[in-house]
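Researcher: Let's try something more involved. This one mixes different molecule types, so please make sure each is placed in the same coordinate frame as the others.
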Amino acid sequence: MNIIYREIDIPDIRELDVYVRNGGYTALKKALGMSRADVINEVKASNLRGRGGAGFPTGVKWSFIPQDNPINYVVVNADESETGTFKDRQIMENNPHQLIEGALICAYAIKAAAVYIYIRGEYWDVGAALEKAIDDARAQNYVGDGILGSEFSCPVYVHLGAGAYICGEESALLESLEGKLGQPRVRPPFPANKGGGLYGEPTVINNVETLANVPFIIDKGAAAYKAMGTEGSTGTKIFCLSGHVEKPGNYELEFGKHTLRDLIFTYGGGMKGGRQIKGILPSGGSGPVIRVNGNDDPILDTPLTYEDLQKLGSILGSASVIIMDETVDMTWVASKVTKFFHHESCGKCTPCREGTYWLDKTIDRIMAGTAKPNDVDLIHNVANNMKGVTLCALGEFAANPILFTIKHFPEDFQAHVNGAQKPVATVAPQRGARTTTAAAAPAGD
Amino acid sequence: MLRDKYTEQIDATFAKYPTKRSAVMPLLYLAQQEYGWVNQQGIDEVAALCELDPTQVKSIAGFYTMYSEKPKGKYWIHVCTDLACALCGADEFYDSLRDYLHADADGNSEDGVFTIDPVMCLGACDKAPMMQCNFHFHENLDIEKAKALVEGWRAEEQQ
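Model: All components are placed in one shared frame. Result:
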């Protein structure tokens, strides 16, 4: 079932004429004939949840925008930067008009003055292709002034980021778009409030995949959309599968109809080299790791939904599923992800800036086999001092990789702490002296 | 001067936003493209265009990793060594390519034509190992394919 990755059935759907021939922009036309409230209610009724990671109900988000405000904005979050996430890129490369159409329907519903697509700078070529798609749409009156003969006008602009993970956080993204450092804002006011959005105006910020779902909902109706998936997770979801599988890639699957096992062994072609599975990061670096005791573990029969992943003590998030096999040292995984957060901390909140530094230093020491007896206590101490005291979730998530590795893979962790450098076969040893100064790090207490 | 050379492009950039300040990132890319890196002249010109203090522009250039505040090679190679790629051998791939280029501690090759840096996730996890050169993707690589790309660019440079 591909309602987003329609290029699988219609290879050239990236071209405007092909998109239009296959029903493209009919949802926009339909929406322009509806009242704004009806458009929002239809999206609300679909139970569409944000696909960027947080899973917030999309229609509810739209309904927060004050209808009497003269200038509102739609910002598309295309800053896809979570480790293991590459789904939005494929949408923008292969089905860009569906994103543009979804964003314009949102813009109509909230009376937006403009749509800004904030795309990560590394997607340089994707951004250029998207600009061409917007130009094509403008030439046919789908974008710009008096769209399709209506009174609704809305330009669509592409804005390139420049290599900062934090700009995927919505308030940091707004700062960046305003030409400032990409650092989160104090909330309230929230982006939907006057004073909290782009240039201080009420703003809806939605992920690429979220908006690409909207044309289907308006065209076919909320009931048809809700017929797919489960009550808590409606529609389809794109799963980014990477790591130790034979066929990594993006797979769009109906919620609740498939399990982790289906994803890995049917779609992903099974474990690389027929090896046994050891761990899954279901939501990139941010979500808690899941322990799997080999390919027969019943945990793999968990259905793929927001609610079922939560029952496992993890999250579905943006569905960036990274698979690790039996040869992987999970402490090394934790050190990699910890390094990511240390690098990407924006530096605004002291607990995150200092905490990610100390977690990184301490796990380097542990990897190098030079851990001190109280280093595990130190990690818990640092992690506890990061919880709930930062402006955004990065500080909250940054301790997860180490804490959940200690919890779920104590044997890997303990072996390092006890001084052994290689507790299990390690396919990917630490890169070594170029990036680490483990031996020189002072004690943190 | 950027203003004279790229008047049309700069005007089109400003037209996208209600504030001049919002153009600072696209204009920094323009300065980097023109001067090879974000040098003081580029900072000063972007500041004047956006009606900002040069210090403010410099802080933006320093915050975002895709602006280089140091001279770099004409070919700027970014190798993803983040988790998903590293599970598929990206660390070893990066080390081999670095060695092949005889890169110094700053990542610059001996002939100064290349600069190589390890970077965090680039959103190509299913096509590892991979790299970008001047922000263009090269995917499903191994060291031999990467060497061939490097030699192609070297030949291009010598023409």
